[in-house]
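Study both lines:
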Amino acid sequence: TLELDPEYLEAYLNLGSVLVELGDRELAMAAYEGALRLHPDFPDAHFLLAQLLEEMGRHQEAEKHWQRFLDLVPDGPWCELARSHLALKKENQPH
């Protein structure tokens, strides 16, 4: 699909999700980042990239994507999960 239509955003997300399932996190990250290069304000890509970065232990990088997701979709169905990740990050910061 991406070869036929390289601007089909959902294809990047679908590819990323399949790659996560296959265990190829680096390529999945590249797929999500590809979607964000085309559309920097695509909330689903920020959400999925944040989740992936969290799974990879890259919490600081994930934080900016959680926050951007919330900026774009302040009242969506996945906002509570994003807020909980940001709250956890604040709790774990040294005082």
